[in-house]
Amino acid sequence: MSNDDSKINKELQKRMKEFKAALKNEAKKQELHDNIPGSEIMIRVEVFLPSPNPEEFVDGLFLYMGDTGGIVNAEYYFRDMAEVELCSLSDEELEVVKELFKDDFALEIE
């Protein structure tokens, strides 16, 4: 485990303790809600890509759509019978994916 993993796990455990306490105490819950600085809508769409041999592997894209209604990020995944790998797209790759799928996946958020 890297130092970053250790730090993130420690912080997650602190937050989970805080969340559990908030579930047990309405005042703590309200205080938590009142102190959240903001949020944004993020919708994830999974695109299953055609595979020449789906019994051996599948791959696809996770498209993330923001409150503007368009694709704001994407990740590529590859899943075989043993494991799943996930990677972020470079800026150039993201632009290609945005252009390719912009008419297929769009939201109107009011």
The average pLDDT score comes to 89
Radius of gyration: 19 Å
Shape: extended
The total count of strands amounts to 4
Q: Helical content, roughly?
A: 25-40%
The percent range for strand residues is: 25-35%
Low confidence ranges? none
What is the spatial order of strands in the main beta sheet?
Answer: 1-2-3-4
How many domains comprise the coordinates?
2
Largest sheet: 4 strands, antiparallel
- Helix-and-strand structural type: alpha+beta
How far apart the termini lie comes to 43 Å
Helix count, per DSSP?
A: 3
SSE order:
HHEEEEH
Task: Tell me what the structure shows.
- With about 110 residues, the chain is of the alpha+beta class.
- The protein folds into two domains: about 5-35; about 45-100, no CATH class.
- Helix content is about 40%, strand content about 25%.
- It has three helices and four strands.
- The longest helix has 22 residues, at about 5-25.
- It starts with a helix and ends in a 9-residue tail after the last helix.
- The model has no long low-confidence stretch (mean pLDDT about 90).
List keywords for this structure.
about 110 residues; four-stranded antiparallel β-sheet; 4 strands; about 40% helix
Structure described in brief:
With 110 residues, the protein is an alpha+beta fold. It folds into 2 domains: 3-34; 43-101, no CATH class.
SSE topology:
Blueprint: H1 3-24, H2 26-34, E1 43-48, E2 57-65, E3 71-80, E4 84-88, H3 91-101
Antiparallel strand pairs: 1-2, 2-3, 3-4
